[in-house]
Amino acid sequence: MTAPLEARVPWIPRLAYSLGNAGETILHRTFEYFVLFYYTQVLGVSGSIAGLAILAALAVDAVTDPLVGSYSDSLQSRFGRRHTLMFASVLPTTVLFYALFNPPAGLSAARLGLWLAATAIGLRVAITFFYVPWSAQVAELSSDPRERVTLAILRSIFGAVAQGSVIALAFNLFFRATPAYPRGQENPEAYSPFALTFALGLGVVILLSAAGTYRRMQALERAETSAPLRFTVAALGNAWREMMFGFPNFRCLFLGALAAMTGLSAFNAFSLYLGSYFWGLSTAQIGQWQFAFVVGAALTFVLGKPIVDRLQASAVFSAGVAVGLACFAAPVLLKLIGVLQGDVAINLMVLAVANALGGFFLGLVMITSAVLASETADAYQARRGIKGTAMLFGFITLSMKLASGLGKLLTGVAIDLIALPTASEAASITRGQADALGWACFITLATLGVLGARVFSGYRSAPPATASRSTAT
């Protein structure tokens, strides 16, 4: 007998769904922390060229997200509308991730930029065929809002473990300091084994996540009563206009997330530069600073569900964005105005506490974003009588990926304007150039954080009486 949508999701598909977040986290974190630094500081590509290449990849990826989502919503296949695409993404994702960090020897800076663009576009499109169908499952595995919060928390746990693994392995194994490279992230030989390890990890995560949710989703898809969305580019364009102009909540969520996540992406991209040249941290200390974010995010595993259950998800999302970005920006400003001096131990403690707090508030944002996106998908289906869940989640991921690309471009342009030397000439970096990095990061965070919170403030949650509160059985 097919389980009803309101039923409590069994543990195997629960865990398998949540594991899928580890794949996107591995890819996202390597893009956030290492790709721009590797191509600019290690390979000598212009920051603007590298930033544009990454933006192009994420822009193509962002455009394909709703296309893949719409196609998945309409797909009829023996493996299911979600899993056909999820299984197909395993091999190309694995191969292209490795290629991203292993360009052919002897390429000029311009051709390295083209290699970055080509491999990054291919990789981002490949993982879209997993990520968009996977993300739609949070609204399909159960229609109970409380169960969706549980799924969101579990996927945050797997995401935090993946992020912690990326940071721990990167800074303590692959990029550890050597006599030749005291800042291990500047070592070109470290990137190939780093890429191979995480490429294989990506492939395994995608395969296990798809396999673990397969039977549950097959049963739910057979029981589906809503008509599937018909896939055409014209229909997708009409749906996009309808969502932006006919659903104010979607518009607020999309544009607010775009602004705020662009700021966060820029901060992540700045982190290796700031840690190395602004804060004067060792490779291991940079790892400790970044790992504090994971510790803070882990607190949401305990406190996230009670907070979201008791408060409106939209209010938690808005506060999480504003306070989270403020936590990242505050230490930079304190150092720029002279409150934090040259004591590395004190600075590291302040950075770790700020990153932990930022991780906690951004963890709440990740939980509530799944709930808010599910609310929007439910409203669309109720109004249109058409199931377009993956298409709508594709539009949400579109904003996040555009934000990631824009953040890298802003960082790359700032590096060029500051005229930051490459790793081979890092000893010549002046105090003025280091401070300019800090000001660029702070201004970007403050401007986009305020803008994101302001735009999202127009979101209006449905009254509790109209919300589905089915009891899980």
Would you tell me which CATH topology applies? Growth Hormone, Chain: A
Beta-strand fraction estimate: under 5%
Helix percent band: over 70%
Number of helices: 14
Characterize the largest beta sheet: strand count, sense, and whether it forms a barrel: 2 strands, parallel
Based on DSSP secondary structure assignment, what is the total number of beta strands? 2
Number of individual domains: 1
Structural class: mainly alpha
CATH homolog superfamily: MFS general substrate transporter like domains
Write the element-wise H/E pattern from the N-terminal end onward: HHHHHHHEHHHHHEHH
Name the CATH class.
Mainly Alpha
CA-atom Rg in angstroms = 22 Å
Mean pLDDT: 85
Describe the structure.
This protein is an all-alpha fold. The chain has one domain (11-463): Growth Hormone, Chain: A (Up-down Bundle), CATH 1.20.1250.20. The protein is 77% helix and 1% strand. The protein has 14 helices and two strands. A two-stranded parallel sheet has the order 1-2. Helix 9 runs parallel beside helix 13 (389-418) and helix 11 packs antiparallel against helix 14 (431-456). The radius of gyration is 22 Å and the shape is globular. The two termini are 15 Å apart. Mean pLDDT is 85; it is low at 1-6 and 464-473.
